[in-house]
Amino acid sequence: MGLLDGKKALITGARKGIGRGIALTLANEGADVGINDIVDDDVSHRAVELIAKRNAKGTFHAGDVSTVAGINSVIDSFLNEHGQIDILVNNAIFPDQSRPLFDTDEVFWDRMMDLSLKGYFFGSQRAAREMIAQKTGGRIICLASVHAYTAIENWTAYGTAKAGLRRMVKGFATDLRGHNITANCIAPGAISNALPEGNDDVIDGPPHDPSRFTEHLPSAKGGLPSDIANAVLYLSSELGQYVNGETILVDGGMIASKKMRD
Ligand SMILES: NC(=O)c1ccc[n+]([C@@H]2O[C@H](COP(=O)([O-])OP(=O)(O)OC[C@H]3O[C@@H](n4cnc5c(N)ncnc54)[C@H](O)[C@@H]3O)[C@@H](O)[C@H]2O)c1
Fold this sequence. Notes:
By secondary structure, this protein is α/β, with parallel strands linked by helices. The protein has one domain (8-261): Rossmann fold. It has seven helices and seven strands. The protein has helices at 17-28, 42-52, 68-82, 106-134, 156-175, 225-236, 258-261; strands spanning 8-11, 32-37, 58-62, 87-90, 138-143, 181-188, 247-250. Strands 3-2-1-4-5-6-7 form a seven-stranded parallel beta sheet, sandwiched between helices. Strand 2, helix 2 and strand 3 (58-62) form a beta-alpha-beta unit. The longest helix is centred in the middle third of the chain and has 29 residues, at 106-134. The termini are far apart. Nicotinamide-adenine-dinucleotide is lined by residues 12-13, 15-19, 36-39, 64-66, 91-95, 115, 143, 145, 188, 190-191, 193.
């Protein structure tokens, strides 16, 4: 018996990194998992193969979730394969998210907000609509960040989007009252998102060099996709059913630490 037997989960941006870790972790607990990514390559298909190895149904749904048309086509494709949606994890992000203040132009701003706010909002709205029609309830989980809590030089556009998600899930929780749908964020700290060597059948790739963190981080090491995936599992399952409209930091104490806040 798994914590998610019979559940159908869609994870965006999940061919690698944290999303891949979430996909494999939910499959370990019995969920059938759809992986979305804008990149459709061997790495994407390996992730699907690893879900199937866990005796779960694994599917791939290529698409850009920064547009409403893209999200709808990804969710249509997922529903076509799985029949219903119980868990949506909004996780996708493009690389190189930091940008000095005066280099932040309209193109970068729109790219950030389109993926991290608009995409996450309309994906959640569509999933909620399906969950209400199904009368099953459901779980909506968004990946926020420590940057939603504090300013770190050159991360203002990203941090603004991630801070918006903290408010967004409060709105979804409130507006979906009575439908047995929860909406929450996980806010990771510094998480290694490298693939395991040889794209092996394990959740975590190589960790960050701990010497980067011994000075300022209470846990004195970087985090791994499994650290985030376990928090997503908690929120996705019955264990987290009374957590709603909340953001859970999974950051090794980064935001708690005075050194970080200074
Ligand atoms: N890694 C960290 O230290 C860290 C820290 C805080 C928050 N986060 C958040 O966690 C989430 C996952 O981060 P990660 O480091 O694992 O990322 P990653 O770069 O390893 O993976 C992101 C995936 O999203 C895909 N993607 C990019 N644009 C897309 C689009 N428009 N549509 C669909 N897929 C798209 C990419 O191809 C990639 O496979 C993100 O929301 C990120 O902001 C990560």
